[in-house]
Design brief:
Length: 471
């Protein structure tokens, strides 16, 4: 069993109530973590705000690189910790560690880069012989709140850019997955990160998360999680910068000119990877009428390859969802769709927190499964007449995170890029495709259009100072 403590400015919080972490697959206790109180939350913010000894760019880059090297050496241990507390199949956890190594590398590189600009002022009749310069200054305190579904990479996407920016951060990870987050903080501390630059606090929402979000000394809140919690934060945070990365309901549009083998592979990978628990997982497969039958036949065959079971078994491709309650609610969503006329072609059954990859057809366009976010390995196929019809369906929900379009025609690709109202359009790829430094984030209920990704996040954790000099 893993025993860890919440961290206040790098120091362990001891003697407080324990948060027990359970393995979603078998319910066994896999870890315990000490929790923080309101006073700890306030002290963490005070330590961050008082911190003046910001390491140089060189030093910040070195800390990130050294944490990367340490994670590389311990990648299997981290992958197993992720699997233990999330129930995700080992191949998913290993993939996540790989992504996190990229985040650390890119953040380490960005720490060295100065993106300041220079403006000559003698460029108009009103101008004069001066120059204006910009530089990015760290904020005094950032708060990050992260979800359970990528317990390492989501944390790295907040903490890595904050370190690169020189901004102290107080992190509140998901209470379902605190072990990976605290181990990651340990790596950074061993790599030389000064204590006040990172506190990691677990604890009751009213005493920790809500205190952090609403605190007047916090200059930015970066939140990744569900729409309801994101909207609550938007209404309670008060006067501060907000970066909100919320839920999704992403479509994969398969047109009749698509390479069908590619379309089937993308639909399966997009729907089932990470047990369907990616904000950018494929949640709706929109297939043109003329190829729907053939696509469905091949997709059902492909789905058989996604063996669902013990997350630690090397043969398993789909582990559990985060807990039994989530699996039960996915089961209920399937039953509701069936009652509305949908047919289950494969899957549909639940054992504990295991939800089988499930293919459905004839899913009505207004069914809860395809209107809201169903955070699990459900793959509803919906027929569309043509690309225009697909875009109407794709744009019809409250979400606007990402999308994928499978086509061999450039004109279709260009039309989809222009017509889909969401943060990303990937042609011949899953909606979730990205590199860790590219801009990422959604619009509508999926976010405020402020992007993350290592480079954009650094902008979020800094402000631009403008200064001018005679020239
Ligand atoms: P969640 O229930 O919204 O929780 C996210 C975090 O918010 C957790 O740390 C949670 O703490 C905390 N929280 C809960 N109530 C809060 C409050 N009143 N004030 C401040 N923080 C509060 O989300 P989840 O179920 O962990 O994650 C799944 C969701 O995240 C999905 O909707 C998914 O689409 C979304 N997501 C979005 C992105 C993106 O980039 N757009 C990426 C990944 C995931 P506790 O654990 O203590 O409840």
């Amino acid at each position: 069993m893993i025993s860890l403590t919440s961290l206040l400015a790098g120091c362990p919080i001891e003697g407080t109530p324990l948060l027990i972490v359970r393995n979603p697959y078998d319910g066994s206790c896999v870890g315990e973590v000490t929790t923080a109180t309101r006073e700890h939350a306030e002290a963490a913010i005070a330590a961050a705000v008082a911190f003046r000894d910001t390491p140089s760019r060189y030093r910040r880059s070195a800390i990130l690189e050294s944490a990367r090297t340490a994670l590389e050496l311990r990648r299997e241990e981290f992958a197993r910790t992720i699997t233990l507390e999330t129930g995700l199949a080992l191949r998913e956890s290993r993939y996540e560690v790989g992504r996190t190594l990229d985040v650390l590398r890119f953040a380490s590189m960005e720490a060295l880069r100065d993106d300041g600009q220079i403006f000559s002022c003698d460029i108009s009749e009103q101008g004069k012989a001066r120059k204006i310069f910009t530089t990015r200054e760290p904020l005094r305190c950032a708060v990050a709140v992260t979800p359970f579904n990528h317990p390492l990479n989501q944390v790295a996407h907040k903490v890595g850019p904050a370190i690169a920016a020189g901004t102290p951060m107080v992190l509140k990870p998901s209470e379902k997955t605190p072990l990976t987050a605290l181990k990651f903080a340990g790596l950074l501390s061993e790599a030389g990160l000064p204590g006040p630059m990172l506190s990691v606090l677990l604890g009751p929402t009213h005493a920790v998360a809500e205190v952090l979000v609403g605190h007047p000394d916090v200059e930015v809140v970066a939140f990744t999680g569900s729409v309801p919690v994101g909207k609550r934060i938007a209404s309670t945070a008060g006067y501060k910068k907000l970066v909100l990365e919320l839920g999704g309901n992403d479509p994969l549009i398969v047109l009749e000119d698509a390479d069908l083998d590619l379309a089937v592979t993308l639909a399966a990978e997009g729907s089932y990877r990470n047990s369907g628990q990616r904000c950018t997982a494929v949640k709706r497969i929109l297939v043109q009428d003329s190829i729907a039958e053939e696509f469905t036949r091949r997709f059902v065959e492909k789905t058989r390859e996604y063996i669902c079971g013990d997350p630690m078994d090397e043969a398993t491709r789909v582990g559990t969802v985060i807990d039994e309650a989530s699996a039960r609610s996915l089961e209920a969503v399937v039953l509701e769709a069936v009652a509305a006329g949908a047919k289950v072609l494969i899957g549909g059954t639940r054992r504990g927190a295991l939800m089988e990859p499930t293919v459905l057809i004839d899913v009505p366009r207004d069914c809860r499964m395809v209107v809201s976010e169903s955070f699990g390995p459900l793959a509803p196929i919906m027929k569309i007449r043509d690309l225009d019809d697909a875009m109407v369906v794709a744009n019809s929900t409250a979400y606007g995170l990402s999308s994928g379009v499978v086509t061999t025609h450039l004109q279709n690709a260009l039309k989809a890029i222009r017509g889909l109202r969401c943060g990303t359009v990937n042609i011949n790829e899953v909606p979730g495709f990205r590199v860790e430094s590219s801009p990422f984030g959604g619009i509508k209920d999926s976010g405020l259009g402020i992007k993350e990704g290592v480079i954009e996040s650094i902008k979020g954790y800094t402000y631009v100072k403008t200064f001018s000099l005679p020239w």
